[in-house]
Amino acid sequence: MSPTRIPYFDLPQNVRDEVERTTGEVQHAESVGAGLNSSVAAVLQASGGNYFVKALPSDHRWVWTQAAEADVAPYVRTIAPTLIARIVVHGWDVLTFEA
């Protein structure tokens, strides 16, 4: 994977609409430079609060890591940010966490 991030607002509108069903309207998104496993990694400022999202195309070879992270999320709440939603839609796999 390229270390270059795709900005959150470059995700397809229909994917962002699904994210915003959980977060509320996103006013600002800032890409995160650390880590290389996600095409999109950003902190969102939304009407519902602040969130961290990470996303991969659904056909990406590392998308299984998104599923694994979502599966373990309920067991690591005391040491990790809470997973708010996993959205698999329109060719994207998106995890949304509390920030």
Describe the structure.
Helices cover 21% and strands 36% of the residues. The chain has two helices and five strands; from the N terminus they run αβββαββ. It has a five-stranded antiparallel β-sheet with strand order 1-2-3-5-4, sandwiched between helices. The longest helix has 11 residues, at 13-23. It starts with 12 loop residues before the first helix and ends with a strand. The mean pLDDT is 93.
Concise overview:
With 99 residues, the protein is of the alpha+beta class. The chain has helices at 13-23, 63-72, and strands spanning 26-31, 40-46, 49-57, 83-89, 92-98. Strands 1-2-3-5-4 form a five-stranded antiparallel sheet, sandwiched between helices.
Describe the secondary structure blueprint for this structure.
Blueprint: H1 13-23, E1 26-31, E2 40-46, E3 49-57, H2 63-72, E4 83-89, E5 92-98
Antiparallel strand pairs: 1-2, 2-3, 3-5, 4-5
